[in-house]
Every structure is written in structure tokens, then in C-alpha cells.
């Protein structure tokens, strides 16, 4: 069974041999997720759109040289990330010439508070949001890739250009830092708010 | 996909392996993460059963579950409105690149011929259709030009600006030779987020100036540019790409000029208004050398100056502010005790 949200190996093969319909589907299937990922790096929508444009133009141009990635989506994530990196690095250079931070962007995480009803949950949600925001950008990114995207460490390491051990360490650091700010017992309160399966499918 | 299928086979997720798990172990476990992500009813039942069976693990297990739920709860940005628009852009770029690459499959002589044809065609189109607008001034004449977008450019003597006739559409670009004061009309409100269509760029011989809304003075003589900013914000892009520092953002009062070694030197002006004194036909100098003064007489006013090399580094301390060349020469004579002869547009400076 191939759902509408999955891009099959067969389609990838068809796209590589120049099938325009397969290319259009590659775009349609991943467009939303790519924008969503890009939005974590910048709030400059034109920049995200330019990166998506460049990504797909490059894909078509190099289609005959492409390999068979284990996950097409992750491959696209990685490519988009590199493109954004380059574009933002270019912008950053004049905004802050002497910055010693090698990460050219701020990973921006924001939380949707619509589904939270009780005051204590709202307060806790706010606390988590603030705690995540205090993390360095790379740690915010790994929290996103791990928990939001549900990727395994192999995939995270590949996208973020890390080795697997560093990916483990990075997430461990992030979670530890979050725990300093949020007591584990606090988290017990939020048992009742859970995402519905439908909402999750929509996101992916 | 594979993960879901696994669930169908097992039917119930096996939670017994989690008995000894710490909080971190839970977060590091891929199948636990997939479970929280999907929250299938059958798995949730097994999960409840697990917690009932091992009440002492309940707290840590629920905490891990909730932590993942909390970290997953994020804003989304799908940008659906732009989906078809961006794809149109992508296919337009692909079509363009395709037709460009076709030319290179032709035989060599054809390529050469095509290249020449293209050059002639571009020159033809450039001259006849895109025709550049040129505004220039004679020696000693000062004139203000209003650009099609409403920006004002005051040209000093012997200066020239060039811009496209269709200047108003998209990127605004001006090429300068000489000295000019720019009062740029800005189209944008947010100077940190300027769209390509709102940009205003001044091309000089060694740098480009990107205007972020502003009044500034440019002097580009002998391929050496100096730029003073009166108000607003501009960005200087070095044309020499081998430079480490490729850009510099100027704020009001900044003055940047050509220095030896092809780099620019930066200083703060105490009185940036002095930059625009020339627009009122005033000759203003501060701690200037005789060489600098004579260069201005040559470049802006069209004089021929004969200056002995050994006198060129003589400096007049302090400020000179005069309305005409005669007054300037009087000052030079009295302060430096020099012999200065003037005859029409010829000036000879001797000891």
C-alpha cells in the first residue's frame, strides 16, 4: 500500500529517468514538509521559497546523477538545510561580521497553544517553550528532528552532518538542559493533552 | 511505513523491555518514539496494561511519554498558498536552462558564430531598446537630477551618472563617475528586510553601494572611491572578491575612503554636513594637502594645475571654507607663503 504522503522508490526511479509527472509528485509530496522545516531556521519566507526553488531546479538538473537515498524526504531535508545555510551565511556576513558563532541561523521553535485548556497546562507549556528557546540553535534543531520528525539517530546525524555519537551527545545535552528548567514531575500534569493521530498524519 | 507494518504483525506493542528504562532511554528508543508519535489505540491499551502491571515504573514512563508529546507540539508553516506559484518558477527556470544548454550541443563554429551574434544582438538591444540614460555636468557646474523613482542626485562638476531608462522597474541601479550627493527615496519600510525589487545600488569603480534608504555623498575619481553618509544606512560591497571582509555597513557620520593596498579606510566625521557643502558651490577642506586641493581643482572645476612634487604633501592645518577659487588661492598664498600664478584655467604653484 502506498499512501498519498509517501514517495515510492519506483517514483524516484521514474523521476531520475526524466519522468515529469514523477517530478511534479516529488514536489507536491514534500513541499509542505520542506517549508515547515525551513521555517524553523528563518522567518524570512522569501528565503525559504528561494531555497525550495533552487533545491528542485538542482534536482531536475542533476537527476541522472542522483543515487537512491534511503529516505527521499531526509535527503531533501539535508539538501534544503545546506541551501539555507549557504543563503543565510551570505546574509549574515554583513549583519554581523564578527560573529564567532559558526551556526549561521537561529533555530526558531514556537509552540501551538490552541489545544491546551487548563491554566496549569498553559503555564507548563509556556515553561517548556521558554526552556527550548534557551537552547543553542543546534540543540533546538535536534529536538525538532528527533521528537517532531521522529527520526532515528542515523538519519539525524546524516542531515545535521554529525557522526552518530555526536548526535547522541547533542540530544543528551539538550534534554539535560531542558530538565534543569522543567522538573520531570511537572511533565506528569500534561498527560491529558495528546495529539490525535489525524493531526500527526497531517503534519507529515 | 515499515514501522506501521510491524505493529500489524505483532498486533500489540511489547512494552516489557521498558521495565529497566531510564528517562533518557525512553527518549533514545526509536520504537517508543514512533509509538508516541502515532498513538495507535491498540498500542495505547498495551501501554496502559504495562503501567498497571509495573506501577513503580508508571511515573518515569508517563514523564517520558509526556516529554515527547510536549516537544512535538510545535508551530507549523506549510506555505500552501505559494505552492503552485513556486512550482511555476521552478519550471520556468528549468525551461530557461534547457534552452541555454541546447546551444552548446551545436558544432564549434556554430557556437562561435552564435556567440558573436548574441553579443551583437545584445549590444543592439542594449543601445536601441534598453538605452541607458546618461546625465553629466561640465567642469564647475552643479546640477540636480530627479531619477524616475523620485530620488534626487546632485552632480558635482565633471561628473556623470548612468542608469537604465526603465529605471523605475525592479532593482534600481546607478553607475557613477565623479562626485554626487544622493537622496534616495526608499520604497521599503523595514530596512532589515529589503526585497530585491526595492534595492537601490550605486556602482563605483572599486565598490558597490547598496542603499538602505538615505542621504550620502559619493566621490569616485581616478578609480578611488570615497563615501560619506549623512543620514540613513548603506552597505558597501567590495568588488574585489579576494578580500576577506566583503561588506561594510555604514551609519550616519561614517566616512569611508580608498586607502593604500586597495582597501578602504573608515573614519567618523564630526560634521557630516560638510560632505554636502559643495552642493552650494562652497569649497571646503579639512587638514588637506596641497595635492588633494589641486586634484579637486582639476577634477571638479577643470583647472590645469602645475604643482611641484616636493610641495604636494604640504598640509593646511584646520578648515578652509570658501566660495570661489580666488579666495582659495588667497588663503593658500598667505598660509603657505607660496607663489601662485593664475592665468585663465591654468594655475602654477611654486615656492
UniProtKB/TrEMBL annotation, chain A:
Task: Look up the domain of life of the source.
Answer: Bacteria
Taken from the UniProt entry, a GO cellular component term is:
DNA-directed RNA polymerase complex
Does the keyword field hold Glycoprotein? Answer: no
Q: Where is the RNA polymerase sigma-70 region domain?
A: 26-93
Q: Which UniProt keywords apply?
A: DNA-directed RNA polymerase, Sigma factor, Transcription, Transcription regulation
What InterPro entries would the database entry show? RNA_pol_sigma-70-like (IPR039425), RNA_pol_sigma-70_dom (IPR014284), RNA_pol_sigma70_r2 (IPR007627), RNA_pol_sigma70_r4_t2 (IPR013249), RNA_pol_sigma_r2 (IPR013325), RNA_pol_sigma_r3/r4-like (IPR013324), WH-like_DNA-bd_sf (IPR036388)
Location of the RNA polymerase sigma factor 70 region 4 type domain: 127-178
Question: Mind telling me which PANTHER family this protein's record contains?
Answer: RNA POLYMERASE ECF-TYPE SIGMA FACTO, RNA POLYMERASE SIGMA-70 FACTOR ECF SUBFAMILY
Family label = Belongs to the sigma-70 factor family. ECF subfamily.
Q: What is this protein called?
A: DNA-directed RNA polymerase sigma-70 factor
The taxonomy runs: Bacteria, Pseudomonadati, Bacteroidota, Sphingobacteriia, Sphingobacteriales
Amino acid at each position: 500500500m502506498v499512501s498519498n504522503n509517501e514517495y515510492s522508490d519506483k517514483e524516484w526511479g521514474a523521476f531520475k529517468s526524466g519522468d515529469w509527472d514523477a517530478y511534479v509528485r516529488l514536489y507536491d509530496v514534500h513541499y509542505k514538509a520542506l517549508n515547515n522545516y525551513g521555517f524553523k531556521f528563518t522567518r524570512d519566507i522569501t528565503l525559504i521559497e528561494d531555497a525550495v526553488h533552487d533545491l528542485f531546479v538542482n534536482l531536475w538538473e542533476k537527476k541522472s546523477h542522483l543515487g537512491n537515498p534511503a529516505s527521499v524526504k531526509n535527503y531533501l531535508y539535508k539538501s534544503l538545510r545546506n541551501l539555507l545555510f549557504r543563503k543565510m551565511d551570505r546574509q549574515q556576513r554583513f549583519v554581523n561580521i564578527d560573529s564567532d558563532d559558526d551556526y549561521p541561523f537561529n533555530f526558531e521553535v514556537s509552540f501551538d497553544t490552541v489545544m491546551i485548556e487548563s491554566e496549569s497546562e498553559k503555564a507548563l507549556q509556556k515553561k517548556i517553550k521558554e526552556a527550548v528557546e534557551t537552547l543553542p540553535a543546534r540543540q533546538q534543531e535536534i529536538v525538532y528532528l528527533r521528537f517532531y520528525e521522529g527520526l532515528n539517530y542515523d538519519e539525524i546525524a546524516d542531515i545535521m552532518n554529525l557522526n552518530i555519537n555526536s548526535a547522541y551527545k547533542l540530544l543528551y545535552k539538550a534534554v539535560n538542559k531542558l530538565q534543569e528548567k522543567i522538573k520531570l514531575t511537572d511533565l506528569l500534569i500534561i498527560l491529558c493533552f495528546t495529539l490525535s493521530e489525524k493531526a500527526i498524519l497531517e503534519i507529515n | 511505513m515499515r514501522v506501521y507494518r510491524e505493529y500489524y504483525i505483532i498486533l500489540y506493542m511489547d512494552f516489557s523491555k521498558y521495565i529497566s528504562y531510564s528517562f533518557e532511554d525512553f527518549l533514545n528508543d526509536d520504537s517508543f518514539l514512533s509509538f508516541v508519535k502515532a498513538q495507535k489505540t491498540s498500542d495505547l491499551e498495551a501501554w496502559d496494561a504495562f503501567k498497571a502491571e509495573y506501577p513503580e515504573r508508571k511515573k518515569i514512563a508517563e514523564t517520558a511519554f509526556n516529554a515527547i508529546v510536549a516537544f512535538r507540539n510545535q508551530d507549523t508553516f506549510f506555505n500552501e498558498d505559494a505552492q503552485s506559484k513556486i512550482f511555476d518558477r521552478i519550471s520556468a527556470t528549468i525551461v530557461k536552462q534547457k534552452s541555454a544548454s541546447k546551444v552548446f550541443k551545436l558544432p564549434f563554429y556554430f557556437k562561435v558564430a552564435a556567440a558573436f551574434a548574441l553579443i551583437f544582438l545584445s549590444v543592439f538591444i542594449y543601445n536601441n531598446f534598453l538605452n541607458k540614460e546618461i546625465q553629466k555636468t561640465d567642469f564647475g557646474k552643479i546640477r540636480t537630477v530627479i531619477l524616475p523613482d523620485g530620488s534626487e542626485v546632485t552632480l558635482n562638476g565633471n561628473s556623470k551618472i548612468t542608469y537604465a531608462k526603465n529605471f523605475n522597474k525592479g532593482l534600481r541601479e546607478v553607475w557613477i563617475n565623479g562626485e554626487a550627493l544622493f537622496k534616495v527615496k526608499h520604497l521599503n519600510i523595514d530596512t532589515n528586510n529589503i526585497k530585491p525589487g526595492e534595492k537601490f545600488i550605486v556602482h563605483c569603480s572599486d565598490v558597490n553601494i547598496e542603499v538602505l534608504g538615505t542621504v550620502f555623498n559619493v566621490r569616485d575619481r581616478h578609480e578611488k572611491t570615497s563615501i560619506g553618509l549623512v543620514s540613513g544606512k548603506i552597505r558597501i560591497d567590495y568588488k574585489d572578491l579576494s578580500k576577506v571582509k566583503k561588506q561594510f555597513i555604514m551609519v550616519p557620520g561614517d566616512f569611508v575612503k580608498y586607502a593604500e593596498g586597495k582597501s578602504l579606510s573608515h573614519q567618523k566625521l564630526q560634521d557630516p554636513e560638510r560632505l554636502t557643502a559643495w552642493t552650494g558651490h562652497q569649497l571646503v577642506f579639512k587638514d588637506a594637502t596641497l595635492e588633494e586641493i589641486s586634484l579637486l581643482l582639476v577634477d571638479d572645476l577643470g583647472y590645469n594645475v602645475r604643482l611641484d612634487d616636493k610641495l604636494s604633501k604640504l598640509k593646511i592645518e584646520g578648515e578652509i571654507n570658501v566660495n570661489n577659487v580666488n579666495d582659495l588661492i588667497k588663503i593658500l598664498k598667505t598660509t603657505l607663503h607660496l607663489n601662485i600664478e593664475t592665468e585663465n584655467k591654468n594655475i602654477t604653484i611654486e615656492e
